[in-house]
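User: Hello, can you help with two protein structures?

Assistant: Certainly.
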Amino acid sequence: MSTAHFRFYAELNDFIQPSHRQIRFDHLFNGRPSVKDMIESLGVPHTEVELILVNGEAVDFTHIVQDDDQVSVYPMFETFDATPVLRLRPAPMREPRFVLDQHLGKLATFLRLLGFDTLYRNDYGDADLARISGDEHRILLTRDRGLLKRSVVTHGYFVRQSEPRQQVIEVLNRFDLHRQVTPFRRCSRCNGLLRQVDKEQITGRLPPHTQEYYDEFHICEQCGQIYWKGSHYQHLLDFIASVVH
């Protein structure tokens, strides 16, 4: 039986058992496990990890843990480029795109409202989500820790909050997105891009009062949904102001 000495930092402590949080602890093991397998066996998805130091040296996920190794594990950094010392994942995504699991539909709507490229369908299976995240280089947002442990997922995040408005604030803060918010450029229904459209082109599709009182319209290039600054518009502006700073 061998022993490795672990310490997890910052929000990685959310995933490990309470008695191991914020301290260095001993972990017994047999054989020759990789540091990735050992970290995930302790409850931390690899997508949450950006830097691993073993005996003070940066290592990648394939590193084989040895008896008496001192292992320090640090969380993902998306807000600055630390690539000179990182050996774990592709470069942080400077223009983040997302794919969300079935539990985060309201969050998907809010992220689209704020202008972020966000894929969501309530019938995506775990394999679909993992494949889309890997193939399309999208950050996988999920409430399922096990999903983030799939090896094909290189960028992912476990959403801690359960209330949608708080989830938006959490994601904006986590990925430092406040300066990248561009509201009303995507369709909240399908994620397509919006473009301005002349009123004459869509007159037959508008309710009578809308046609009478509004002159500025946008249409989704993907699904054809029409948008205008109706009575709900101020409510949306108030929501955006409450989550973006």
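That covers the first. Now for the second protein you mentioned:
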Amino acid sequence: MKKWNFLMVFIAIAINTYAQVPTANLVCHYPFTGNANDQSGNGNHGTVSGATLTIDRFGLSTGAYQFNGQSDFIDLSNHASSFNQLTGSVSISFWVKTPIDTPQAIFGIAKVPTTSTTNGTNIFIGENVTGYNTDELITTGNRSSLSIYNISSHENPNDRCFLFDNDWHHFVIVYNTNSTIIYLDNSQLPSLITNYGNDHGQFPNIPSTSIVSLGSRYFNGQGVFLKGALDDFRIYNSALNLTEVASLYYEIGKNGAGRSNSSAQTIIIETGSSIMSSTSHFKSNEIKVYPNPAKDHLFIDSRENSVGGSITIVNSIGQSVFETEINSVQYEIDLSTWTGKGIYFLQIYDDNHILKETTKIILQ
């Protein structure tokens, strides 16, 4: 996750014991662990058309789906009625990874035959997807009749590198009946543009919905395909709050057997501090440490190559058990070389070897 306005260092801790991923009012959940089945218990299973299994954000080799940007999508149309019976507030959560800044559809609902007055509901990333807004990062557009048509999008020509970087990013879109709220990587996007249409907080009921898809939208045929990867797509028939959004963002440990109950600790280092050297390559970056507590292995994920600075882990009496420059995306540490179970301290230094942050790690 990139932050572009803050000149600070802080720690965000999400512990699954206290912040469970929300399951109430869950309409569908596609974790993509080997297939496109719905794990919500509602049976809204998808049919894969062209998309292929790929590595997810946890390193699971068959934990997400890759879309080719030309013809791939996942068809949910067999359960179209499930997506057209949502009333009140609706929230949509998903992870996406793409290297290109072009119009791409994440999710689409449509009526067949489609018309210019009753098209459907779509979620897009990329710019110029509607013809009404420009420089969009993400756009949700809804049209259920000639008079009910609205577009909400976040527009910023300077923020594009924070999404289209071929890395995983998390979105939550909340239709709370009064307005649309969009979160990117656990931060609410400011200055949402809603200058077209009305009822921006409504997730509309499309009359006679018959086409529902992931990785594409339908308008007289599939189109505007996603070129990238998609994971953990969820829809809730409720408005998620800040705690629930955070629990989805900090969810960790997906594997073939389910989800880990261990906790994740994330350290966010911000650029711009006056104590950093003018030649420093220490970039705005998220450093994720997991699992914590740990048993056999510890992972440190910097999410970005060559960010600069260094990491040191010391035991309770100050002896170093691990040191490295931050120049790789991920480190896997064999804990058998450490000095025994107990409390350790992870220290983050900038390029001048000035200590920026210290946090606790527990070895069980």
